[in-house]
Amino acid sequence: MPTAIEFNHVGKQYRLGLVSTKTLSHDINRWWQTAILKKEDPYLKIGETNDRSVMGNSEYVWALRDIDFKVEQGDVIGIIGKNGAGKSTLLKLLSKVTGPTVGTIRAKGRIGALLEVGTGFHPEMTGRENIYMNGAILGMTKAEVSRKLDEIVDFSGCERYIDTPVKRYSSGMLVRLGFAVAAHLDPEILVVDEVLAVGDAEFQKKAIGKMQDVSSGEGRTVLFVSHNMASIAKLCKQCILLDKGSILRSGDTQDIINAYVSNANSHNLNIDSKIELTEGFCITRISFEQYGTQNDKISQGSPFSMSFVATNELDFDCALVFNMEVSSEQAQHITCFGNEFQDKEIVIHKHSQILVRMNFDEMLLKSGTYYLTTYFLISNKSRSFTKDYYLEFAKKFIVDPPSPLFYSSPNRIWKSFPCLPQHGNLNMEVNDFTVEDISD
Question: What is the pTM of this model?
Fold first, then answer.
């Protein structure tokens, strides 16, 4: 098969803290060094790796560095990685939203891109007018767009609002119409970012099916960025894993997904680990407990609890918001819980320490390995102070088959478990939510 996309040692460098990456003095210096003295661009030597979690010493950062790969026509390639790994930047380079700092990109054919909600739409124009405008941008005639119009409108499910300005559309409606336009206006290359996550489950299923039809039936090339590993595994045979702006691995999709989860879980928390939101405030001792014992193994069907300790050594009180997301071993999101979804504000007074415990009636997940992704946010409105911390696959835990105690109630087994979905359903309604001051 001919090559549809080719990245040749591509890099994208940004200058931090500025609306534009260029200044007159930098441009003159770059011109003098490269055009007159025939030397290498001096600013390419001082950029640092794109690690958003640490402070750097340089004002230049490489959002992407030494990206080198080829995609054959008709392939569907998944691109995965943590937030800030460079996935969206890569797609923007391919879509010519921005240009590479170094290297070259070759793409054969027209590119249809859906990078953000409402990409390319004019808010004052109707849905119908935006369809024609997008067709013109892709180089299509009015007659060509008209032939596809009914199919686009029907796929989007926005027929009632097609003659309404898109500024009145919800984000989900914008995604529906945007994807319908990008997929139906005959681009040879379809580029789709995480925006499909905004759509409902029914539309996501339609969108995945359409991308499969576009690639297998019509021979077009698809680049698909998503944090939904189930969609990536279903749609893509090959996958690229990005980390800190570089390609960490590429190859068979399931192998890459396993590598992604293993790499993200390399910072797995134990009872003594610490998450430092800011100097003077930390989260420690994230743990599961069952039958009075702390461990990372939970018996299916039995009650359990999850707890953590928050320590505030700051000179002011903080409000704490937290969210825990449970994912399967294949990184498929299952459920989440925390006070972000409940009307239970936690205030941690200055120079104090608290123990937060959530008690659940029973573990309803099927036997297997799972991951806990954590999100913590602290704030003080009077001081305009806010700090947050997100750690993907922070903790690994295992659900064991039901304990003998559970078998003592056989009617409960047959009543509860045959109707469970694929992975089960961890009850989001916390049975008992307690906050205890454990300051010395």
Answer: 0.66
